[in-house]
Write a structure and sequence with these properties.
The protein has 75 residues and is mainly alpha-helical. It contains 3 helices and no strands. Helices cover 56% and strands 0% of the residues. The chain is elongated and about 45 Å long. It starts with 8 loop residues before the first helix and ends in a 13-residue tail after the last helix. InterPro entries: Tub_FtsZ_C (IPR008280), Tubulin_C (IPR023123).
Length: 75
Amino acid sequence: MMANHTNISSLFERTCRQYDKLRKREAFLEQFRKEDIFKDNFDELDNSREIVQQLIDEYHAATRPDYISWGTQDK
């Protein structure tokens, strides 16, 4: 059975938009500052956001006919 689940990228896109809004307003960051990993900065959160964006990009690439060669141009 073959299935196409690339539409899940819309969920990730919405999550990124919501994260961006919260990050811009610095909402709820005080809760994170209580943790050792976030005392000095929020790099871990920002890196995670980048990874989700890369996932979105790959899902979008998977919908194109040239997906088989996607990502090889960078190397």
